[in-house]
Amino acid sequence: MKMLEGSRFSSRSExxxxxxxxxxxxxxxxxxxxxxxxxxxxxxxxSSKVRRAPRARKGFAAHLERVKVVIEPETPAGCPGLxxxxxGEDVHEPNGLMSPRRSSG
Length: 105
Prior knowledge:
By secondary structure, the chain is mainly alpha-helical. The protein has a domain at 2-45. Helices cover 30% and strands 0% of the residues. The termini are far apart. The relative contact order is 0.07.
């Protein structure tokens, strides 16, 4: 590393320019050094940069009772076009809003 810096920044570097490394060659050397340092650091810490994909969200269990509640909005007077086509609907499963039902028997 010191030899590479010396050939680039020392007082003799201008005399060595005729056969010196180009900027691309310097970048390649520094990239190789950086990769080897990262590999050594990873080996020393024992961790890798491999990340697992996040797990998919699971729905509620099939044995739980589903209760469909439809809340109709109040239609304000004088709003034409409310009888038109609906663009979308919101569907969600609330968690913990209903008390559990106990089976008797």
